[in-house]
Amino acid sequence: MELVRRLMPLTLLILSCLAELTVAESEGNSSCTVSLGGANMAETHKAMILQLNPNENCTWTVERPENKSIRIIFSYVQLDPDGSCESENIKVFDGTSSNGPLLGQVCSKNDYVPVFESSSSTLTFQIVTDSARIQRTVFVFYYFFSPNISIPNCGGYLDTLEGSFTSPNYPKPHPELAYCVWHIQVEKGYKIKLNFKEIFLEIDKQCKFDFLAIYDGPSTNSGLIGQVCGRVTPTFESSSNSLTVVLSTDYANSYRGFSASYTSIYTENINTTSLTCSSDRMRVIISKSYLEAFNSNGNNLQLKDPTCRPKLSNVVEFSIPLNGCGTIRKVEDQSITYTNIITFSASSTSEVITRQKQLQIIVKCEMGHNSTVEILYITEDDVIQNQNALGKYNTSMALFESNSFEKTILESPYYVDLNQTLFVQVSLHTSDPNLVVFLDTCRASPTSDFASPTYDLIKSGCSRDETCKVYPLFGHYGRFQFNAFKFLRSMSSVYLQCKVLICDSSDHQSRCNQGCVSRSKRDISSYKWKTDSIIGPIRLKRDRSASGNSGFQHETHAEETPNQPFNSLHLFSFMVLALNVVIVATITVRHFVNQRADYKYQKLQNY
Hints:
Blueprint: H1 2-28, H2 30-35, E1 40-41, E2 45-52, E3 57-63, E4 69-78, E5 89-93, E6 102-106, E7 115-117, E8 122-128, E9 136-145, E10 156-158, E11 163-166, E12 179-185, E13 190-200, E14 211-216, E15 223-228, E16 235-237, E17 242-248, E18 257-266, E19 273-277, E20 281-287, H3 288-291, E21 301-302, E22 311-312, E23 315-321, E24 328-332, E25 335-344, E26 358-367, E27 374-378, E28 382-390, E29 394-400, E30 414-416, E31 421-429, E32 435-445, E33 455-459, E34 462-463, E35 469-470, E36 477-483, E37 494-504, H4 511-514, E38 529-540, H5 551-560, H6 568-598
Parallel strand pairs: 1-3, 10-12, 26-28, 30-38
Antiparallel strand pairs: 2-9, 3-8, 4-7, 4-9, 5-6, 5-8, 11-18, 12-17, 13-16, 13-18, 14-15, 14-17, 19-20, 20-23, 21-25, 22-23, 24-25, 25-26, 27-28, 29-31, 31-36, 32-33, 32-37, 33-34, 35-36, 37-38
């Protein structure tokens, strides 16, 4: 009895602690068990408002036995604004548990509406909160959908300087469970002004149910400009040449949706005109304030081909193809020039006089090595503005699977067998059909900077490797093949660099049409443009297991450990180390022998 009496206080203390622990666990997990009534959810769609407590760690799994994916949307997230993403977050996993692949993480620092999609019919999300005692609210909405079934007019890509788009079925009620994404991208140098003529969505203060989300950039990971719903007509403006618009709807209360239009605003300063030349077109920008002196807003401007019309925004833009719209192509020494003229469209045939000055803008792109020249001079009758600019042809180099050159190899690095045949193509990207590509020199190197050593595959248009075969001239493509090799005493990576000449195909005396020639003959022929293309790395398959990093990282490591002379200090250190090893080995062997000498075998006694 005395023992029981002494143990009684200890028993009561233990029971009290256990009760407090149970209460604390109940409070900490209240939203996991009370708000949802369970952790597994199997409805085809569900909306939940979670009121979260401090120090929670809750996990829910969404699953149904059907061949569909799950889309989960966190349209309203109010977490600890001072908490870190490590201590308070929402994680979404692809599969039946938090051990599955992580689809993404949400915290108070996120500047977008989080939306995740599973690859199958199961998805798991976990919410962890920190110890701060503040109000936390998360609105979660999920539904099952078939990725292969799309809603007509639900999203798309818009790339004109101005345009319009609407919600599906507009002005009729929008569809339920819709998730539509419109990507707007205009020319560089512009920004986008988006105007909603009408928005008629479900009214909610936080826009949790049906909403439009506008992002300042090319994707839904760009910064969120606004999240709107109800009946409003807002206007948004991007900071660059791309904008993304998302429409998300739930399973109830469908209304008219929205109607929107956008225009482009040229952002660069321009007083009169500007000209840029690319591989396939000339781009002319004309200031509207400059045209005001001619009582024109740009509508009556035309090229040599009057059917080619400009694009109008806060500026006038002509995008002139090198092989169209009346562009004149002229072959000159060491260059090819493209010229067109912008003028006012012809007056009515009934008019025989004018008292207004006529504008003529001559634009010329020279694909060569001259500097850019810009001249403006005024005549007594007309205003003539010459615009010259230096252009560049755009080339690229790629590996192909076979000599048909149909399927490009996209792997990088590309692992090959020693002596495997490789097929290489250099492509010229231009709209001018009268050009031809010639491979002047192609060489290989174990490093991307093409420092020594290098190995010539093609030189002066001639094959320098016994396995190298140069294909005949083929328009905008230069092609060759060779067998894979590796450099001795170097890393296994191989990079290729080709010097390319671009010529006029009609010039039968050009360097391109002469093919393989000796160096002494090269000076008598001409080419029109020269450029370099580089590709790599290419590696042997047996080195795949040792290449955990990229080829560039391997080269950096190799450069950080150069071969250095084995000096006297190194030799002395090595001798001391070797002597220590010998001494330790001798002592160990002697000790082992002595122990073996002390061992004696005894015959077991019979009992």
